[in-house]
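Technical note accompanying the year-one report. For the benefit of new consortium partners, we illustrate the data format agreed upon in the data management plan: each record pairs a sequence with a structure-token string. No post-processing was applied to the example shown here.
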Amino acid sequence: MGFRDAVMTGLAPDGGLLIPERIPDVRDRLAEWSKLSYQDITFEILRLFVDFPENDLRKLIERSYAPFRHPEIAPAIPVGPVQILELFHGPTLAFKDIALQFLGHFFEYILEERKQHVNILAATSGDTGSAAIHGVRGKERIRIFVMHPKGRIAPLQEKQMTSVLDPNVFNLAIRGTFDDCQKIMKSMFRDLEFKERHGLGAVNSVNWARVLAQIVYYFSAGLYVMNSCKAPRVRFAVPTGNFGDILAGYYAYRMGLPIGKLVLATNENDILSRFFNTGDYRIGTVEHTLSPSMDIQVASNFERYLYYRLNEDPRVLRELLEDFEQSGALSVPVQHGEPVDSVFQAGVGDREQILATIRTYQERYGYLMDPHTAVGVSVAERHRVDDEPMICLATAHPAKFSGAIREATGQEPHHDILDKVINAPTRVETLPADENAVRDFVDLHSPSPAT
């Protein structure tokens, strides 16, 4: 299908994920791109995948980045032994803003063109929900239903979502885990009659446009750091739970960005790090941690990676995932003594390591980071090499996770955006972790998508 339909459908009709037909090789453009602004690199990358008129695409890029508070959008800053790629300068202070501002404008552009409405259904472990809500709030052709696990996200993350009172926004607190929310969402999308009747759209990283927008900051930061450090390649350390952010880095690598290693960092919910160290992917129990946005067992974007790992054979992939749905485990063949994938390294940052990393970087370098970023930096320090600068993705502003910062440093971080929502009125509906309850709510509150 074309890009417009890929944006609007989110999940493929059979419940699988959409991927590009081909991955362009851009190695011959890197020297030219290294001189461009973030906005111009965005244009060059998106035009390879997006079938909008170029003038319209440039306007959408300009509109999407307008709310960002840093002129470079996603600056890379040297801090001690690493480079910190700050992705939290958007309206909700999280990396999700970069893609979800785009997605909101993409939806609006296509819906206006087609004179249609859409009902967005999303599951969030924290930052996706508020970024998605702020990307589509007040848009007359869009309604959004966001599920979050009740009591399992940071209080300020919840406030950022539930204090948005626009009539097109519905927050659903689900009595369960994020995996419960994600399972409900995927099941509802697989019901094609329900999906079509309500015009369901997706903003989670199952939507290809999300991953696409995130590819940009790998190129922007990678080219900048290679130039400034006079290095032939770079490494990226990525804290991840749902595999979307690091998947964007994997696409950048396949497009030709000189990436030495993608360092995957998980918290105690270590299903992904175990896979890249052993080839075994097995569901455990979700643990509640200092980095709640990563408290995930089933990573929804992982099947996109598996497609390439399994030699691009959709039949083998389908059989593997069907078995996984029944057994809760899968594995891939690994040659003795060989890594699962030569571009990936993986590790775990646990509670004590997170607190120690936050404390050390604040005391030694005067840099305060949130606990998710600290997971990435903690693991990155174990995988550094002298000739490949390590770029660590900073995924949220530390003020969003004041409890962890207080515990690590004794400080109370603040940000004016967050201070405004602390005492704001909220609107949220609590539902059981039951698909029928969510279906009934969507039925009751969604208009016909056709007009």
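Partners are asked to follow this layout when depositing records. The two ends are 23 Å apart (CA to CA).
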